[in-house]
Amino acid sequence: MMPEGGLRRRQHSSLRAWDDVGMLKGLSVQTVLQAGIPLVRNISELPQSDYGRGGLSHITIAGSVLHGMKEVEIWLQTFSPGSRTPIHRHSCEEVFVVLKGSGTIFLASNSHEKQPGKPQEYPIFSNSTFHIPMNDVHQVWNTNENEDLQVLVVISRPPVKVFIYEDWSMPHTAAKLKFPYYWDEDCFYSPKDEL
Ligand SMILES: *[C@@H]1O[C@H](CO)[C@@H](O)[C@H](O)[C@H]1NC(C)=O
User: In angstroms, how far is CA 81 from the centroid of its own chain?
Assistant: First the structure.
């Protein structure tokens, strides 16, 4: 158990800790509340950042690292015109709800092959929804030159472990693991703080 003072100091920092083997331990709702994170949160006041990716605004609405979520995690992401995710895959389910704007989802569903290969392109639009099957390589791209693309994203099995591809012909085995992912890294809680 972390000392309470430590939790208070960190507030919007991590409420989960990585142990030596990289596993995460969730903390109870009570602990989250004690840490000064209110149950009802104003989305406009939540921490947001581009996490080093131009054109992105990411807000973790409910997260594993941030709020101790164990089964699902929810993000609100806004992509400025032309901005996009990396080409990537992850072994969790992912559901998108498009709140504003439009764009394109690129999806390579032949993940049994050695490499993603040429992806299929699907137009996405305001009030549309789509999901990404586990481990399918994909990329979300705001291809609309005039408008931001805003999506609500739900993933299972947080925190997400992302494998990133440089291009669609990169072999699956060469994809680079990024864990913890950028917004989880921000909240990394070093094990010694637990003692
Ligand atoms: C999205 O679709 C639902 C179902 O038809 C509808 O109730 C809702 O008003 C729509 N939202 C927007 C923002 O268009």
Answer: 20
